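Hey, quick one: can you model this chain's 3D structure?
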Amino acid sequence: MAGKVWQPTEAKKFAKWARKGVTVYVVYNMATNLAPYEDDQLFSAYTANWQSPITGSVMFGHLSANALCQNFGPVYEEPPTGMRNIATPPPQVDGPLPEGYEAVLDEAEIRGLDKRVRDGSDPKKRRPLGGWRL
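Sure thing. Here's the predicted structure for all 134 residues.
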């Protein structure tokens, strides 16, 4: 990462640096116990799109530059390498389609996939609710 990084304690420096139209990036730590197939860390982009007429502070949506850095810092000037943007779809973990399948699914294919799912999820073969043995 070649760009600048502002820690939450450097919020005033970040607020002085921020200009209208600049995009900065913030890293989020994900709760993998609630989303086990999600990445551990994702980043989000914030663009400064207006300036407050009252305080004169550059605003990132509803957050001032100072508040963005203090509440969500550290703030990065360039996107972190090796991380996925939180706005992009996650990778498919498992499914009935083979890896790399890129075709439009017609009605017959969707019915066939539904049948495969129903056949694989037989209620009689499931373990009893609350039980740990078959």
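One thing worth noting: Residues 69 and 91 are 29 Å apart (CA to CA).
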